[in-house]
Each structure stands twice: as structure tokens, then as C-alpha cells.
Amino acid sequence: MEFRTTSNNINRNPIAFFDSGVGGLTVFSKVKALLPNENYLYFGDTKNMPYGEKSEKELLEFADKIFKFFEREGAKAVVMACNTTSAVTYEKLKNNYNFKIYPIIQSVCPYLANLNGVKKLAVIATSATVNSHIYSKEIKKYNPQTEVFEIDAPKWVKIVEEHRINESSNEVKEILDKLPEVDRIVLACTHYPYLLMVLKEFMPADKFIDPSLDFARIIKSDLEKNGLLNDKFEYEKFYVSSSPENFVKSSQVFYELTELPKVIIL
Ligand code: DGL
């Protein structure tokens, strides 16, 4: 990933995140904890959620508009805190903008491929991510021995966005029941870690992998290596494409917003 911006005061420019909704906050909250001196932008495309049920053409359009918005806002780096867009759009769009882009899947698969003692890995993701088979392909690139089982959980994103987590045991179990015996299970949609409190009713919590912490470490170390870190926090700005009140309500498990996000239509 080459860095291609020309601005002088680049370090103070924000790191921008996007997702279809509150899922990306699982990544944002960890990056912010590791890098408290950064400025941040976050866009939740709540009007177009769920991304996992959208076509490639639609996902490319959404991602391109969001990247262009971040370009206008002067982002120094953009975090694709969404597995679905990383799976479907990253390869096609990655060279079109003047900032560094961090896609979640391509960033974390080298680590997932080499987990101690893991021979069989289940990956639960959106339908679009599963249909792309990107987890299997990426993991096998780094470790051809690992067996990867991909399964979609199309209802899980809405459970989180509609804050129905407390009543979701049946819908959660329905998917877990379909899994073969595996060593670990990757929560390969950034919305799914919100369901950990339900998931652990059925399996030990440490069976599940939320890749966001490793992703945050990768982002930090790469920004450091490129001399792009800031030394003073000034702002964080949240945007959504609809329903700001709902966003605040759904986000609480991972991040307490102090004000309503601004609604923008791109
Ligand atoms: N949170 C996103 C992901 O990681 C998108 C979920 C959706 O909107 O379907 O895949």
C-alpha cells in the first residue's frame, strides 16, 4: 500500500472510518484507544444498510462516494471498517484516491492464517463476503494447510442495528448449529462482536475471534512507520446517511457518542 498525498500538515489530518452502520465502531474504538492523539471522522451509511445484501455495483457506488467525501475532508488515511466493502470493492478502488487505505480483511488474514494450534477455522460473515470467498483465498495464501468454513448470518446485522440483541438467542443459535467442529470462529462482520454476550451463551467466549484489535495494531504500526501520527487530539466527527438517534442508541456497547451524528447524503 503506497502513500500518495502531498499536503504539508498531513499529520493533523483525520483518520476516517466507514461502515454501513455501527459495526465499524468495533474497530474505531480500538484504534482510538491505541491512538488517542488523532483526529477522526466516521461515516455510517445507515440509509444503505445492510451492505451484505447489496450487489457489487451498489457497493462500489457507495464506497466510491464515501472515499470522495473523505478526500474532500482531507483524510490522511481511510479505514474500511467493513468486511463486506473490503471483500467486494477494495481491489477495484484501492488506487483511485490520494490517501492510504486499510481494508480489514486483507490486513488481518496474515494473522488469522497463522494462529497457534488452529487447523480448522470457521468464518461467519455477511452473504456478500461469504459469496466472494475472500477469507478462504486470503488465508490459504498465507497458510494452505488451514481449513476454512465460511457461513453467512444474514439476520445478524439487523439485530444489532435494531437493538434486538437481548432477544436474539434463537437467531444466533440457528447459525452456530450449522457450523462443523472447528478450533476457532472468526466474527468476520464488524457488527457481530456486538453479539458476543449472546454468542457466549452457547460457546466459550475465547472460541470467537474479533479481528478488530489486531486490525487496530496493524493500523497503528503502519501509520507510525510512515511518520503519519499526530500529537494532539482536536476533534472527532460522526456522520450518518439516516437515523442519527438510532445510531447513537445502537452504538452504546462499543462507543458513547457525546452528540448526535450529522446527517449527510452523499
Ligand atoms: N459491518 C459490515 C461488515 O463488516 C457490513 C454489514 C452489513 O451492512 O451487512 O461486513
Chart the SSEs and their pairings.
Layout lengths: L14 E5 L5 H10 L5 E5 L11 H17 L4 E4 L2 H6 L1 H4 L6 E4 H9 L7 E6 L1 H6 L1 H9 L4 E6 L3 H6 L7 H8 L7 E4 L8 H4 L8 E2 L2 H14 L10 E5 L3 H8 L10 E2 L3
The site of D-glutamic acid has 16 residues, from helix 3.
Structure notes:
The chain contains 12 helices and 10 strands. The chain is of the alpha/beta class and 266 residues long. The protein has 2 domains: 10-103 and 214-263, Rossmann fold (3-Layer(aba) Sandwich); 107-211, Rossmann fold (3-Layer(aba) Sandwich). The chain is globular. The mean pLDDT is 95. The protein binds D-glutamic acid. D-glutamic acid is lined by residues 19-20, 23, 49-52, 82-84, 126, 129, 157, 189-191.
Q: Based on the coordinates given, report the CATH architecture of the largest domain.
A: 3-Layer(aba) Sandwich
Strand count, sense and closure of the main sheet?
6 strands, parallel
Number of strands: 10
**Uncertain segments:** none
The proportion of strand residues reads 15-25%
Distance between the termini: 26 Å
Q: What is Rg?
A: 18 Å
